[in-house]
């Protein structure tokens, strides 16, 4: 019997707070290598808080978070990133004045890999996001929303991260651009990375994902295999109230 690969991300009974507000009340989930896992739920369910807890940006006062086998609760975000976690937040955070090429070069330098590997990583990202090639010398903060998200995901890939946390990056984008980004994330997972995808468009997320977790009021109320859920027409209505 083949052993299951070790998860890249394991949350076990995570309790997180904003001040006195107890927002996550025991969240458990895993993401394995090559897996795209969707985290769904209504507004205010705790999806962003889950992602921010992993990155050390929220006060976690119970439970365990492991990234690639390393306990990360209590570590600052830069150390979580060093454990192999790339975070692509909703607001994408482009540095104004830096071109796309410079964004990629900075990410490559940060990876501390040998130069030929850095260059290969940039070439790889341009294969995944060919739309960026004509814009390499443009100020990244002036690109369209979808292109900026591609730069943000590209930076995480160039850094050599094994796990990507992607928080609502399709928000406000045209449906065809959102679908392109989704397909690219699926490709990234198919190449062996783990992807945790927070997505408002539950239908799209369910189509892309291998597994799905649904949060409500800070707890996982449902989880399952995405293929099985796609085959169940009543599931979306029952669990996501769509
Ligand atoms: N900085 C904060 N301070 C206090 N409470 C917060 C803060 N950020 C979020 N909350 C609260 O925590 C709860 C979970 O919010 P969170 O942003 O994680 O939800 P979400 O599922 O990502 O929702 P959305 O889809 O609206 O982004 C909500 O009740 C929200 O009001």
UniProtKB/TrEMBL annotation:
CDD domains: ABC_TM1139_LivF_branched
Any one GO MF annotation of this record: ATP hydrolysis activity
Alphabetical list of Pfam families matching this protein: ABC_tran (PF00005)
Descriptive protein name: Amino acid/amide ABC transporter ATP-binding protein 2, HAAT family
Domain of life: Bacteria
Gene3D superfamilies: P-loop containing nucleotide triphosphate hydrolases
Alphabetized UniProt keyword annotations: Amino-acid transport, ATP-binding, Nucleotide-binding, Transport
Family: Belongs to the ABC transporter superfamily.
Residue stretches making up the ABC transporter domain: 9-242
GO biological process entries: L-amino acid transport
């Amino acid at each position: 019997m083949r052993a299951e690969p070790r998860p890249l991300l394991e949350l076990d009974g995570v309790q997180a707070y904003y001040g006195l507000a107890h927002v996550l009340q025991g969240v458990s989930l895993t993401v394995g290598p090559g897996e795209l896992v969707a985290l769904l739920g209504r507004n205010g369910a705790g999806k962003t808080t889950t992602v921010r807890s992993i990155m050390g940006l929220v006060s976690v006062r119970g439970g365990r978070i492991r990234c690639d086998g390393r306990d990360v609760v209590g570590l600052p975000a830069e150390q979580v990133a060093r454990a192999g976690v790339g975070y692509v937040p909703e607001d994408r955070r482009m540095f104004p004045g830096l071109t796309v090429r410079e964004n990629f070069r900075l990410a490559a330098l940060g990876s501390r890999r040998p130069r030929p590997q850095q260059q290969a990583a940039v070439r790889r990202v341009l294969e995944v996001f060919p739309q960026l090639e004509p814009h390499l010398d443009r100020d990244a903060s002036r690109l369209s929303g979808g292109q900026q998200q591609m730069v943000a995901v590209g930076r995480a890939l160039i850094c050599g991260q094994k796990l990507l946390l992607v928080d609502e990056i399709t928000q406000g984008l045209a449906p065809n651009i959102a679908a392109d980004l989704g397909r690219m994330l699926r490709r990234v997972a198919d190449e062996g990375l783990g992807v945790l995808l927070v997505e408002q468009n539950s239908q799209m997320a369910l189509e892309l994902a291998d597994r799905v977790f649904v949060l409500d009021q800070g707890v996982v109320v449902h989880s399952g295999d995405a293929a099985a859920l796609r085959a169940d027409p009543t599931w979306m209505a029952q669990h996501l109230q769509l």
